Amino acid sequence: MEAREQEFLEYVQSGGQVETDDWMPDEYRARLRKFIEMHGNSELMGVLPEREWILRAPTLQRKLALTAKVQDEVGHAQLIYRVVEDLGKPREQCLDDLISGKSKFHNVFHYPTKTWGDVGVIAWLVDAAAIISQKALLKCSYAPYARIMKKICWEESFHILHGRDVVLTLMNGTDEQRELVQEAVTRWWGPLMQFHGNPIPPEDDPMFVWRIKSQGNDAARQQFLDGRRVVRARAVRAPGRVDGALGRAARGGARDPRLRRRAEAELPPRRRLPPEGKTEGGT
Ligand SMILES: [Fe+2]
Ligand SMILES: [Fe+2]
Asked: Lower CB density within 10 Å: C or N end of the chain?
C-alpha cells in the first residue's frame, strides 16, 4: 500500500469522512460504488413483492399505508442511485446491470410474499433488520452516503410501526389471521438470520476496514436478536430452532424477564399478543 493510501486508510479509520471530490484510493471507490449500488438495487427490488399486495390490501387505510411504504422505498433507491452516479456510474447503467443480472441485490428480496401476513412481517422484521444496517451507515466514511441515511432511517422506522400495526391487528383477529402471522414469521426467520451476511470477523471484512460499514455482520445480527421485536416474534411462537450462538441468544433473549416486561408494558392492553403459553409450540 502506497503512503497516500495508508494515510487515507488511517484517516477513515480514525473517523474521518470523505466527500465526492476528495482523493480516494481506487479500491475504496470501487468497493464503495459496488456496495451502494447493491443497496439501491435492494431498495428497488424490495418493492416488487410488496407492490403485489397494494390491490389486495384489506382496507383503504392499509392500501394507503402500503402504497406510501412502496413509494418511500422507491424514493430510497432514487436517493442512493444519485450517490452512485456521483461516484462515476450513471443511473441507466445501474438499471441495465440490475435487469441483466450483472449486478446484485440483497438475498432477502428474492423471496415471494405469499400472504397478507408477509406484508406485516416484512415491514415489522425485515425493515427492522434493515434499519440496523442503515443506522450503522450513518457513520460511514463516505459523507454523502451517510447524509442520505438520515432520511432513509427515519422512513424505515415508520415502516416498522406500520408492520407492527398490521401484525398486532392480525394477532387480535381470528385464529386464521393469527396463523397467517405465525406462518409468515416461521418462513421469514431463516432469511432474517442470514440478513446481515456471513459471520466473518470485522477485521477481515474490507468494508469494515475502510469504514464503509461501521459494524461487523455478527454484531448487527446480535443487535437484531437483542431487540424487543424478537421477544414479540417469539410471543407469536418460536420461529424454528436456530443453532449456535445466535440461536442461544434468541432463546435467552426471549426468556429474559426484563425484555418480556418491557414488551408487555409497551403494548396497549387490548392489543397485547396472546399469552405465550397458548401459542408457544416450537423451541
Ligand atoms: Fe428502504
Ligand atoms: Fe423500508
From this structure: N
Mean pLDDT, the chain, rounded, equals: 85
Q: Which residues surround ligand 2, an ion (CB under 5 A)?
A: 127, 156, 159
Residue 242 has pLDDT above 60, yes or no: no
Distance 36 CA to ligand 1 centre (A): 13
Q: What CATH number is associated with residue 67?
A: 1.20.1260.10
pLDDT of residue 9: 96
Contacts of 196 (CB under 8 A, 6+ apart): 129, 132, 133, 217, 218, 220, 221, 224
Count structural domains, the chain: 1
- Which structural domain range is residue 32 located in? 3-268
Give the Cα separation of 209 and 275 in Å (integer): 45
* Cα–ligand 2 centroid distance for 53 (angstroms): 15
